[in-house]
Amino acid sequence: MNTFPSSTFFSAPPDWGWLIVFYFFFGGLAGGCYFLAVLIDFFGRPEDRPLARLGYYISFPCMLISGLLLTLDLGRPLRFWHMLIESNTFRPMFKPWSPMSVGSWALLIFGIFSLLSFLSALAEDGHLQQPAARGLRPPGPLGSILAVIGGLFGFYVAGYTGVLLAVTNRPIWSDTPLLGMLFVVSAASISAALMILLGQKSGRSMPGVNALHRLDTWFQRRGPSIGRSDGCFHKPAGVAPVVDDCHNSRRLVGSRRISKQRGRHR
Q1: What is the per-residue pLDDT for 140?
Q2: Which of 179, 195, 215, 231 has the greatest number of C-beta atoms within 10 Å?
Q3: 92 three-state secondary structure
Q4: Are 120 and 90 a contacting pair, CB within 8 Å?
Q5: Percent of the chain residues past pLDDT 70, beyond the cut
């Protein structure tokens, strides 16, 4: 029976399925929503704090789903801790030269910061009767430190999967310095879009939602240009216009929705 050659040309392709595909999506949402929530906390208006809490509410569950998807994809889920701990000595295992090892620790650390911010958002909304948890968010000194460190890890989580793909042996996307940036831009765009959608549905502050819409429009304009840059994706000539048309359509629909929402609040 004839079979197609491996996409790597020289070795067997990696066994990636839908678990990894969904991990890319939820991991991008987790990092992107957290990073945007931190930006809103630091640079947004006081009335935008509910929108920042929405970002924290999205980030932590998506982080849990990401960890679950990666664990299930291992084939032997009960050995997931081997990515972090040496099985012989039970000492922490960290390989700075390995993107997978660095990414595993980044996911764990970011999950901790995401949990703290999630608990703080619950306390501020009155769903958690722990007054001390309110200090885990800006503008307090402890909350500001946690937000800065957590935001950096969120930014890393959003883009490191692209870097991990770039060092694989698949010629279609290997050895490109732009794939990580493309993942960051994509994560920011889908995170802003989800926060816009849920923010409008839940009646969150309009100034922050409109700012997110402008940010999402900017990211959508930059995403296709990064994807078409040299060394990233070599797409057929007819693909790029289709991508641009899709992005233009999304911007048009989003603009109309924002305009309608503004009209309702006048």
Answers
A1: 86
A2: 195
A3: strand
A4: no
A5: 70
Q: Tell me the C-alpha distance between 123 and 18, whole Å.
A: 36
| Model confidence band, residue 3 (pLDDT cutoffs 50, 70, 90) | low
Helix (H, G, I), strand (E, B) or coil at 85: strand
Residue 258 has what pLDDT? 44
Residue given tokens 């070795």 in the structure block: 11
Task: Write out the two tokens for 251.
Answer: 């911007």
Could you tell me the two tokens for 64? 């849990």
Q: In terms of pTM, does the model score above 0.85?
A: no
Q: What's at 191, amino acid-wise? A: S
Q: Which residue has the tokens 């990696």?
A: 14
- What torsion, rounded to 10 degrees, do the Cα atoms 218, 224, 230, 233 define? 140
Is the link from the previous residue into 61 a cis peptide, with omega within 30 of 0? no
Q: Which domains does the chain have, with CATH numbers?
A: 18-265 (1.20.1630.10)
Give the pair of three-digit tokens for residue 96: 């700075």
Task: Give the rounded distance of the alpha carbon of 197 from its chain centre.
Answer: 16
Q: Which helix (H) or strand (E) holds 38?
A: helix 18-43
* For residue 138, cis peptide bond before it (omega within 30 degrees of 0): no
HSE-CB at 10 with a 13 A cutoff on CA atoms is: 4
Mean pLDDT of the region 187-194: 89
Instruction: Find residue 85's DSSP bridge partners.
Output: 92
In angstroms, the CA 37 to CA 55 distance is: 5
Name the token pair of 12. Answer: 């067997």
Tokens of 11: 């070795």
Residues near 232 by beta carbon (within 8 Å), at least 6 away in sequence? 173, 176, 178, 179, 182, 226
Enter the tokens of residue 247.
């992005």
